[in-house]
């Protein structure tokens, strides 16, 4: 069984001292076109009961709150449905906006192709959309009459009003990850000669955004929340990482408004389970972006509130095929649960005992992985998505060890060594993942973030502690070269990969200068057949060193590691698009 650090019953709420520094409502409403930002034409409900009046005042359901007191003294308060609230009036302009947006949906044939591709190629990444629920909603949507659609959204059932917002985001994600031999009928979606499927994907995602914005904060639903999360996925995939972080913040507030952060069941068991699944993904994104990007973290989650995967402890022979949910839960209980603890280490004066404790628990959990999740496992008959999901989990598990020790690499030799070893594991895992991935997956940010952070750290320790890591230089050189080759291959499809390549290439120049004798790079050249004239240099290294030396960039190497490596990547990405 996996080990946890604490036995807290529930830590979902924002920590008091972090609220001010975390995502504030002002920050959440920063974007002009937010996925749940109400416009002047928002669909507003008309208060029809004490419960609606209390909701208008902004009170949340709480055992010790004013709303509960009113309930206790006998007033009937409608708690509302967890995953949707009824609306009773809409402005004429809003009605026109809604019907105008849903007319942008493609034909049934195109929708069927894209939805099928979404659940085959994309959905497993985060398990945000429940396939049976989505399929049922799609079938209900198709049963709507022409009259109902003309009078939408007032004429629609509550659960279907926000559905097109989610459908647009599903279509957008599917279009981003189409294979090179995609169904030619999808070309019908292009209306200009130079259009790409990714251009249509952006338009569908924006349409989903506009539609979701018609629903006010009091009209939130789990469907709107799923659409917000997929919008964040879309933004992150196309390299708009800062925008994705803001969208994530909006989704977190929406989820809290719906009560998804509470442990007590609300609504039907199926609804509660779906809400809990979405809240877990929100928390993981929040924690990961806090650690990777250095952003504030606004959620906490008790490991005791997260179920174990159904198949934990079972071998593949005694088990029905693991589902995406199982892989996510396995990764959480093995390592991801500690991200929130790693985030607060900076606030602890002497955190070394806690670092050692977490490191020990991580190693125990890795040793306790179920048979179907270990790297050395029978893979005969294993579906491609499962192989990719488990390899991604391996990357992320070692990223947690990496993140645990990275803040201390200049002060603690033991942390320096452990972070270095974890970085090598990350890059080797990323190489395996890239080797098995079809080109349709190259747009995924999975191939950039972990690779970039790990390569920056390897370069930094060899520059700053070259004697200490002299024996590891061959492994470092190999992994940096492979990483650069992967990033170079991805540059045409990912602006993040392009920026990461430029940053790491510059660091690799400094690594070679620091690690190799001066004579190796002062007179380096490349022969006519492309081979290096120096036996111990590859053509790639020779080319890098030649550029390095000719540009006279041999400067001090004392500050090559920025406090947050991704800040360089993101600033470069922004400059390339400006």
From TrEMBL:
InterPro entries: Sec_Metabolite_Reg, XnlR_reg_dom. Pfam families: Fungal_trans (PF04082). GO terms for cellular component: nucleus. One of its GO terms (molecular function) is DNA binding. Residues 244-315 form the Xylanolytic transcriptional activator regulatory domain. It is found in: Nucleus. GO terms for biological process: DNA-templated transcription. Keywords: Nucleus. Its main location: nucleus. This is Xylanolytic transcriptional activator regulatory domain-containing protein.
